[in-house]
Amino acid sequence: MASNRRTFIKETGAALLASSILPSTDLAAMADPVQKLTILHTNDVHSRIDPFPMDGSRNQGLGGVSARAALIAKIRQEEEQVLLLDAGDIFQGTPYFNIYKGEPEIKAMSAMQYDAATMGNHDFDLGMENFAIQLKHASFPMLVSNYDFSGTELENKTQPYKIFKKGSLQIGVFGVGIELKGLVPDNLYGKTVYQDPVVAANTTANLLQKKGCDLVICLSHLGDRYTENKVSDEVLAKESYDIDLIIGGHTHRFFEEPRKYRNKNGGDVVVNQVGFGGIQLGRLEYQFSRLSRKKLAKAHTVVVGKKTSE
After folding, report:
1. Which residues contact 212 (CB under 8 A, 6 or more apart)?
2. Which candidate among 6, 48, 180, 307 keeps its CA 20 to 30 Å from the CA of 281?
3. Over the stretch 199-237, which tens digit does the pLDDT of each residue have?
């Protein structure tokens, strides 16, 4: 009887001690906390500073820097860790570029606190000297790993990659650009040497993985896919080893949801693209934990501005 009483007291005391220390905590969650990262992205904004005009067209009232900035600011208030990226073709498409040569576009992106961007073919439309001048207004790095700008005005004005610290996470971001020959007049890109984007991407992604990055992101202006034999995001995803996410541009595709491909290691590569003109803002929510590592928890596009028939 005394033995049973002692056992009861011992077990009850242990239970009370445990409940006093961890009153409502999930032990599994405590052992494996989840970290969140929100990735916002644009591509092919093409100098769209103002919303599309109210002219009865399909995109009337959409886009515009003011609406995008407000949306980004709201998301930053709601989410602790946010990364804002662009996949190129910042320039060309409205009179702002013809008159001001790209300065308002870069200043607007700096004001919105973009973390990084890559370059598209239209960003060369007024030549490399102009591009270099406009990059002086950028508070963010221009990332590209497969263009060699040695001996040109853009030498030392770009970098292949950058690692961002978001909470306890390390996020590696790099860029790849499309072949300029045939898309851009030769004199506008001059001595720029185009290198195989798949080779450059795999080399850079492997370097970022070795540096301990929790997520490796490629900003690509290759285009999502082609019927002809041409390097695309689809080709890059399937030929990659260490890339987790490709944020694409060039082909102006409005993805209803991100595409998933299998890489050379049998892992998932997510590819996303959000049209053109700043009409949509891509939003990807990643979750990281020790046991499940990383996963894309949610993906959706946010329409910028308000569509109206007025």
Report:
1. 170
2. 180
3. 999 999 999 999 999 999 999 999 999 999 899 999 999
